Amino acid sequence: MTSREPEGDHRSTGSDHFQASSNRAVGICLVVGIALFVLVLLLPYFDRM
User: Fold this and answer.
1) How far apart, in whole angstroms, are the C-alpha atoms of residue 47 and residue 39?
2) Concatenated DSSP letters for 1-48?
3) Which residues are listed as membrane-spanning (predicted)?
């Protein structure tokens, strides 16, 4: 029974680390998406110049 306790702890920390990495990935995706959206909106203005 004692040998199973560390495995459970490792699994819990692994899930926490995965959630942190996924949140970071979502943040990066949001920043990239917003940047692309702004570029698309500004393209006509650049063409006029």
Assistant:
1) 12
2) -TTHHHHHHHHHHHHHHHHHHHHHHHHHHHHHHHHHHHHHHHHHHHHH
3) 25-46
Backbone φ and ψ for 3, nearest 5 degrees, come out as -70, -25
Q: What tokens were used for 26?
A: 């979502």
Give the Cα-Cα-Cα angle 47, 49, 33 (nearest 5 degrees). 50
The span from the CA of 1 to the CA of 7, in Å, is 11
pTM for the model: 0.50
pLDDT tens string 1-49: 555 555 555 555 566 776 778 888 999 999 999 999 999 999 888 777 7
